[in-house]
Design brief:
The chain is of the alpha+beta class. The chain has one domain. A hairpin with a 2-residue loop joins strand 12 and strand 13.
Length: about 375
Amino acid sequence: MPTLDAYAPPGNLDDLDDFGRKAWNTFISNTVDEAIQGPDPQQVLNDSPRLQFYNLTRTNTDTDVRHAPIKWTAFPRVIKITSISDLQRWQRADASRDVQDEYCEWSVIRDGAGKITQVTFTSEGPEYWEILAQTNPGKVLELYQKFISPDARKEDLFSPSGRYEPRNKWNNSTSHGAMHLIQPNNTLGAEIELAAAATIRRVINGQELTTEQELIACSKYGAPERNSDPHIGAGVNALARQKADISLADPVGLYFDDLSTDGWETPDGSDPKSYWTYLRGDSEHRVRAVYEVPPDKGFGVGDITIGGRTIEFGAQIADFITIRLTGIACRFGDSTVPPQIACKEFSAVDMREESFNAAAFSSSGRFLDPRPTLSYRSSRVS
């Protein structure tokens, strides 16, 4: 297979004009190159370069290519393991987008009686919206009016100087809409960095590391308490141990994999999954979904039960959603990149920051993630 001409937008979305698509390709390509290079070896030891990771626009993909979907549950595991009951964890997860850290965020609409009528979910990275706002701000407003509220106005979304505000009034809560991801670590930059870092094989004291937790503890590419980070890292590293070259499939993004409705029941016996609808992205790369019952059915989301309990929180639905990314690998058995024989180490300053972040919880229960978050603003279009 030849090299890719350009990285496509997430979900193969068609919002970007020609200039925007070029800007998007530049952003993804540069971010992949930075991830391959890795951190400065003078500041971070045993974590660079990541030579089994490659850029699809610079290196060809060989004919032995395999696609490797990696999936995880959308409900934030950090909240789950720090809560004392299902009710508490659902309440906490629905209270703030800042705790929805599995690359899936949601917002809930209720009727006058407080019963849920709609839950909207998104997996769209903020970087895409930054570039769209720079290259076609009118499209940003159009999409907010279509998917969030016809009352959205340009001044709600952009600062007086014209800068797009990701945490605007229509995208900063769990009750007024969710256009794209805003949790600080839910970025495509974090996805790319994590995948690249996980391609480093680790042989410690003569034994190659293979399990999710020992890999993430040694390579420090994410938060071990999450569903996503350890699972992504282990899936990528399993390919690396087969001495393959690895990348993320185009279009690079985080996508909805499925909604399982086992144990769900509707008042009229209809299929509960029939009320799950994808709104953005192509058939293989869905980035926006809604759970909503049509008005003519005579009941709402809040009348559906899961395991005998009515749906009172969007988080109950998130328990049954899976998110995925797709890695690709080729040239199996050909890589001559040697494994690292020590774990990732930080300078004194970096170590203090890592230790603080890994243990820090705010009073609201928000977990401060040690994953590197690459700034999409650094690729700003001029």
